[in-house]
Every structure is written in structure tokens, then in C-alpha cells.
Amino acid sequence: MTSYILRRLLLMIPTLVGILTITFVVIQFVPGGPIDQMKSMLRGHSGVMGEAGGGVTAQQGAKAQELDPRHLEALKKIYHLDRPFWERYLRTFIWYSPQTPTGNFSNDFFNRENWEGFLVFKFGHSFYRNKSVLELIKEKLPVSVSLGVISFFTTYIACIILGIAKAVRSGSSFDTASSFVVLIGYSTPGFVLGILLIVLLGPGDGAIAHWIPLSGLTSAGTPGYESWTAWEKFVDYLHHLAAPLACFMIGSFATLTILTKNSIIEEMGKQYVLTARAKGLTQKRVLYKHVLKNALIPLITGFPIGFLAMFFTGSLLIEQIFSLDGLGLLSYQAVIQRDYPIVLGSLFIFSILTLIGQLLTDISYVLIDKRITFDDSQA
């Protein structure tokens, strides 16, 4: 197992390099980069100033729209676009850039502050927000963690309980009705449910009832909020979270519920279950002591990657509908604004979490199911 884990960890490096390389090359050729956007902003500003002054001719306005070459070079230097392509590419991963070039080489080389790049976990600063990528991600984490953690555990617990109930009552009216409800939820997009909830239960004048708050995860900023008790703030937090959480979870029940049901039904038809019943064991004892241990292996092994992903959960449309400022909205704005450090930084974090989650999933298979070994897979 040690050699397998070591190989997988080493393979993560070229995988991450490949993901970032493809993304880096693509964004270099996408039009509308930060320089183009800054040109548009300056031209629009100059045009507005010309119109406001009222005494600028059309020819002078056209000249005002031309960006001074010195300013253009300054912008390129600010966005690090004055450097050669190969240097910008290397700085994406790891690059030795001594802060004191005249200092001692050995001391500078082993000083982490003199290295740049994602492989040393330095993601740079946003082009437009004057903050580091890590600071921005930390600011958006409360929304993502709130949606991810609660939806993850709620979905897992509810789906396992519902899947067991459906397997035990397979073919009954309860099984049919619950399958119909679950599949309806699965086919309903979360943003559609969000719009419906906002229209019917939101703060608008046409709503049937005003149950859904206007925005945010709390009522912070409203008069008297600071004097509320801890319990009142917790209830207010759940009140704000209920609607977006329902929209976020609506499509998650079907897969896990049906998987749980089918796994239990498959295990109940195996020989060891018939033997246990022949020994006189009760239905509950056979189900909870023997069947569940094997039937839940596919769900348990998917737990690690889901557990890691829940901290960085984001949904652009749901966040927009309920005015939540999370990672989904941040990633979308970064792509639209061509904020390359945020795009590459968030992609790097998501990729490395996915690779670690897949490794933990493989390890959990071996730990839970003793019939699986790394030696057999290698042979």
C-alpha cells in the first residue's frame, strides 16, 4: 500500500501540470484579456468626460480614446504581461525570483519567499480586487461550507434511510410513490426551484408569503441584530439557509437513494443471506448485521471525495438567485473578467482536492472490503 500511495502522489504532479498547462495556453489566446478590458474602461471614461465637457470636438475625442503607449506598457507590467510567454508559464508553477539579487545565492535559493508558483502554493493576487487569491477564497468559504457541509451530511443520511426503506418494501406503493417524488426532484433544476421559491415566498410584493429573506446567510446589519441571543442568530442562520439548501440538494437524492436500494436488493439475493435466514436469524438482524455491511460499500467509498468537495461547493445560479457571495459567483466573475490568478488558483485547488479524494477513495476500498488488495490489482 505504501508504494501504491507514493506512486499516486508522484503522479499527481504531472496531472496538475497538465491541467494547468492546458488552461494556461487556452486563456492566453482568449480575447478580451485584462489589457483589453482596461482599454475599454479608459476609452469609455474618456468618452464620458468629453461629452460632459461639451467643448471637445470629435477629432479630439478620438485622440482621447487612444491609449498612451507608456500607459500600455505600465499596464502590462502591472499584470505581468510584459514578460515572455515561457517565463509567465514557468511562474505559473514554480520560479526562482530572488528578492535580493545581490545577496548570497545559497541563502536566497532556499528561502521560500524567493519562489513563486502554484507548486509552492503561491497563487498571486487578483488583477482587479487588490487581494490575494487565497484571501478571496477564504472570504467566500462561509457560503460554500454552509451549503456543502449541511447538504452533504443531510443527503447521505436521508438517502441511506430512504434507500433501506425502499429496499425492504420493494414493489409496494411506498416504493413507487417515493421513486416518483425522487425522480421528479432529480429532473427539476435547482435554479428553477429557486426562482419559483423567490416568486412565491420571497420578499417581493407578488409573493404569497414572505418567508425567504432578501439576501445573505444572516440578518447582520439589521437594527438590533447584535443584541440577539446565540439561539436567535442560529435560527436566523437556518432561516436564510433553508431555501438555497433545498435548491442545492433537490437533484442529489435520486442517485444515492436508488444506489442504496439496488445494492441492498442485490445483497439480499446472495447465498450468505439465505444461509443466515436458514439459521433462524430475524429479518432485522440479517439486514443490519450482514447485508448493510456489504451493500453500503459503494456509498462509503465515495465518502472521502465528497467530504473534501463539500468545503468548496458553489453554484453560480443559486448564489445569484439568493444573493449569496460564494465560490461559484467568484469563479464566474473571474472567468468573465479574465482574472487569470483566480481562474488558475481555484482550478488548482479544486484539481488537487479531486486527486486526493480519488486516492482516499481507492484506499477506503481496500480498508473496507478485505477482498480487494493493491497486490491483486497490480498482478
Protein described:
With 379 residues, the chain is an all-alpha fold. The protein has a domain at 133-378: MetI-like (MetI-like fold, Orthogonal Bundle), CATH 1.10.3720.10. The protein contains 19 helices and two strands. The protein has helices at residues 2-29, 34-53, 58-65, 69-78, 85-93, 105-109, 133-168, 173-187, 190-201, 230-249, 253-268, 271-278, 283-295, 297-301, 303-309, 316-321, 327-336, 340-368, 374-378, and strands at 95-96, 115-116. A two-stranded antiparallel ribbon has the order 1-2. Helix 1 runs antiparallel to helix 18 (340-368), helix 2 (34-53) packs antiparallel against helix 3 (58-65) and helix 7 (133-168) packs across helix 10. The radius of gyration is 28 Å and the shape is globular. The two termini are 14 Å apart.
Summarize the entry for a quick read.
The chain has 379 residues and is mostly helical. Helices cover 69% and strands 1% of the residues. The chain has a domain at 133-378: MetI-like fold.
By CATH, the superfamily of the domain at 133-378 comes out as MetI-like
Please identify the structural class as seen in this structure.
mainly alpha
**Average predicted local confidence, pLDDT:** 80
Major sheet size, sense and barrel closure: 2 strands, antiparallel
Radius of gyration: 28 Å
What topology emerges from the helices and strands here?
Elements lengths: L1 H28 L4 H20 L4 H8 L3 H10 L6 H9 L1 E2 L8 H5 L5 E2 L16 H36 L4 H15 L2 H12 L28 H20 L3 H16 L2 H8 L4 H13 L1 H5 L1 H7 L6 H6 L5 H10 L3 H29 L5 H5 L1
Antiparallel strand pairs: 1-2
Helix pairs in contact: 1-18, 2-3, 7-10, 7-11, 8-11, 9-10, 11-13, 15-18, 17-18
